[in-house]
Amino acid sequence: xxxxxxxxxxxxxxxxxxxxxxxxxxxxxxxxxxxxxxxxxxxxxxxxxxxxxxxxxxxxxxxxxxxxxxxxxxxxxxxxxxxxxxxxxxxxxxxxxxxxxxxxxxxxxxxxxxxxxxxxxxxxxxxxxxxxxxxxxxxxxxxxxxxxxxxxxxxxxxxxxxxxxxxxxxxx
Length: 172
What we know:
Helix 1 (about 15-30) packs antiparallel against helix 2 (about 35-45). The longest helix is centred in the N-terminal third of the chain and has 16 residues, at about 15-30. The protein is of the alpha+beta class. The chain is built from 6 helices and 7 strands.
């Protein structure tokens, strides 16, 4: 399957909102009630919030078959070399095809001076937890999160970019 990764543009907002909704509904069915998903998505992925994300973070989209099939959202790198991966969401039929890996790699490649990437993953999101473990993220902790009145258990994970580069012979 052919796909390309590029920087997100304002014109992509509607497509990214649709990917977020479809991915969330597929991933969290039976884990997070539908109404809570809808409320969260309407808030976190509103037009205003998406425009703000474009201004303050790094957003990438994956295009395949002339449509946006996934996206990733990274924070700017902080002084300590740390950054947050806010999301990698894919349309279900494009999971397991290298698209998520390509989005993750693009964000890391473009993050100058990043030494560690952090992510919070819902514990019951087995696909997500498995993906991040396969990409050398290590579990730091678990914590409860209140999502619109629904308590979820989150897993805090980190990927050490410095050790990874050292192990690949990219650092002295």
